[in-house]
């Protein structure tokens, strides 16, 4: 089974344990090591390891490259950095200051030849080459978010790749090396499906060149047997006009958490009882997050209640002496209970964290009418029109004077999806909505509306509206969430006791999922039109691949990640979702505003 986060952790452990050079260092008795890393490596390590994990590998000191560091000799100093000019200069400065005398330099991606030559000449000036025990160039230029998700963490990726004014050279190279890093880490050389666009074509050319260099290397000869000749497909997707999927107000647990709290490097900041707390959404160590991140929020919240009750039962069983137990049995049971205390404590800590997150999310759902926004937006995405009742609800949402700081942004997102998807657009509705946004002080609404209206004729089509209008799943779910805020204060007792198993929204596929489904089933339609193929596999493909990497070229989202997992179950395939940058609606609108200006 694909497990990217474990595979990347395994590769980095090889670096930390110096497995690349152990054969050269027989008899070296020094086991203590220190790790020096840049911000890129710091972000990558944050999703893979905790401080305790580093100590297991005898890393007794870990420092950032740009921090003030003292001289430390005899200890093995391991650098883990991106191959940037700034980092190369900083390493040279370290040698000039004679900070370390037992050095192992590891780059997350290959260093350009000219930069490497300059680096070597600079080091030679200080007569320090004898201090360098090894220099290795790896393929680890990506961040694992889960066992089946990753990001390349390229800032403002959408703007860089979408704006005609931007130089795309650096971003294209970063994407090519990032994709190769994922493929090599997973030991997959895939068949690539890519759209007929200029940026995608440039990325594929760069990726093809990187793969050819790798196949000609000694590293490939050493690793060749680990590759599966029929291992996988890589599907490149451009965002193009599908901005609506990112702007959609989500309902799944992880997507809603990211939308409200902005997950960064698998961490969020949340104020609990007046104190700002950083929470770690650990895809490796947090079983609850791993098992519930794709579930609709009411489902996930209900699972918190179940898990807390199970924890309470287990705790009571640990602390109660059974009738008829003799002294030996009491002693054995006590010993078992003491062994379970650390695990039980950590489990309770995670559940308390998710209780606090769920409490905050409920408040946001209530205060911002997120359930109603989700219903209206999904109706537009999948039905392409609003019923009379839904249109009335939309106008009521715009007219409502909500004091929440995100209220204007919420309305702008709904307006965008309406204009971009609806077949029964009314210009008077757009005018009313824009007027409300203007009065709320939103300055980017007209610029963004102008940006996407250029790609669509806004003449109102003559289409009849449906007259039916029943209360839908999410509205009922919200009513059932009412007990959450009070009940969580009692540590989950009765948490979401009124929630029934209602799945809000229809089981529909977003654009990225439709593209993937069409390509994998060899359907010729609007979603697969224009796609080309490049075979990077070791041998010619003879059968359909079970593993599929789906990569959003100019930014992806948790919403699409969730949607693809639904498709993976339907198609009985393993999907690995990645993107150049995980976008939030706020981030996308900000980049859109920069492009349109």
What secondary-structure arrangement, pairings included, does this model have?
Elements: H1 4-16, E1 33-37, H2 39-46, H3 51-56, E2 59-64, E3 76-81, H4 85-96, E4 103-107, H5 113-125, E5 132-137, E6 143-146, E7 149-151, H6 157-162, H7 169-185, E8 191-194, H8 198-215, H9 218-223, E9 232-237, H10 244-247, H11 253-261, E10 267-272, E11 275-280, H12 287-292, H13 297-319, H14 327-368, H15 370-383, H16 388-399, H17 407-421, H18 427-439, H19 445-453, H20 473-480, H21 484-487, H22 511-520, E12 532-535, E13 547-552, H23 558-571, E14 574-579, H24 585-596
Parallel strand pairs: 1-2, 1-3, 3-4, 4-5, 7-14, 8-9, 9-13, 13-14
Antiparallel strand pairs: 6-7, 8-12, 10-11
The largest sheet, given as strand count, sense and whether it forms a barrel, is:
7 strands, mixed
Average pLDDT reading: 84
How many beta-strand elements? 14
- What is the alpha-carbon Rg in Å? 27 Å
Q: What sort of overall outline do the alpha carbons produce when their principal axes are compared? A: globular
**Spans where pLDDT lies below 50 across 5 or more residues:** 457-506
């Amino acid at each position: 089974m694909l497990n990217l986060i474990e595979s990347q952790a395994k590769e980095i452990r090889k670096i930390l344990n110096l497995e690349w050079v152990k054969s050269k260092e027989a008899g070296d008795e020094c086991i203590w090591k220190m790790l020096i890393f840049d911000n890129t490596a710091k972000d990558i390590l944050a999703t893979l390891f905790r401080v305790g994990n580093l100590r297991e590998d005898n890393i007794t000191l870990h420092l950032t490259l740009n921090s003030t560091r003292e001289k430390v000799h005899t200890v093995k100093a391991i650098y883990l950095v991106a191959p940037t000019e700034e980092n190369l200069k900083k390493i040279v400065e370290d040698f000039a200051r004679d900070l370390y005398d037992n050095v192992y330099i590891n780059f997350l991606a290959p260093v350009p030849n000219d930069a490497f030559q300059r680096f070597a000449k600079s080091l030679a000036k200080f007569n320090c080459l004898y201090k360098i025990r090894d220099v290795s160039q790896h393929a680890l230029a990506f961040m694992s978010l889960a066992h089946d998700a990753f990001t390349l963490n390229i800032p403002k990726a959408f703007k860089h790749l979408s704006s005609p004014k931007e130089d795309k050279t650096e971003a294209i190279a970063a994407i090519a090396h990032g994709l190769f890093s994922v493929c090599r880490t997973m030991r997959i050389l895939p068949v690539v499906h890519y759209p007929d666009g200029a940026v995608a074509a440039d990325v594929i050319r760069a990726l093809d060149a990187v793969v050819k260099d790798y196949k000609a290397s000694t590293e490939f000869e050493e690793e060749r047997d680990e590759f599966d000749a029929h291992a996988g497909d890589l599907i490149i997707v451009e965002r193009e006009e599908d901005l609506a999927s990112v702007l959609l107000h989500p309902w799944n647990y992880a997507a809603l958490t990211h939308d409200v709290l902005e997950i960064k490097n698998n961490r969020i900041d949340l104020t609990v009882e007046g104190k700002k707390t950083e929470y770690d959404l650990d895809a490796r160590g947090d079983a609850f997050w791993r098992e519930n991140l794709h579930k609709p929020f009411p489902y996930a919240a209900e699972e918190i209640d179940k898990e807390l009750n199970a924890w309470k039962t287990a705790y009571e069983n640990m602390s109660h002496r059974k009738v008829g137990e003799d002294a030996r049995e009491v002693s054995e049971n006590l010993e078992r209970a003491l062994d379970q205390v650390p695990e039980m404590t950590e489990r309770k800590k995670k559940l308390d964290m998710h209780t606090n997150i769920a409490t905050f999310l409920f408040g946001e759902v209530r205060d911002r009418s997120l359930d109603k926004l989700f219903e209206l937006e999904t109706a537009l995405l999948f039905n392409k029109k609003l019923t009379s009742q839904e249109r009335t609800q939309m106008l009521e949402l715009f007219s409502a004077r909500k004091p929440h700081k995100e209220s204007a942004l919420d309305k702008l997102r709904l307006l965008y999806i309406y204009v971009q998807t609806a077949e029964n657009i009314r210009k008077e509705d757009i005018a009313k909505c824009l007027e409300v946004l203007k009065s709320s002080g939103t300055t980017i609404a007209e610029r963004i509306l102008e940006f996407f209206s250029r790609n669509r004729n806004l003449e109102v089509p003559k289409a009849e509206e449906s007259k039916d209008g029943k209360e839908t799943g999410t509205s009922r779910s919200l009513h059932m969430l009412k007990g959450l805020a009070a009940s969580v204060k009692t540590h989950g007792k009765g948490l979401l006791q009124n929630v029934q198993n209602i799945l809000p929204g229809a089981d529909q596929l977003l654009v990225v999922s439709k593209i993937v489904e069409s390509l994998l089933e060899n359907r010729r339609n609007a979603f697969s039109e224009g796609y080309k193929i490049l075979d990077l596999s070791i041998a010619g493909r003879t059968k359909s691949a079970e593993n599929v990497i789906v990569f959003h070229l100019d930014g992806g989202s948790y919403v699409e990640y969730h949607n693809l997992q639904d498709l993976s179950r339907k198609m009985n395939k393993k999907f690995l979702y990645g993107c150049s940058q995980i976008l939030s609606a706020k981030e996308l609108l900000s980049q859109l505003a920069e492009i349109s200006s």
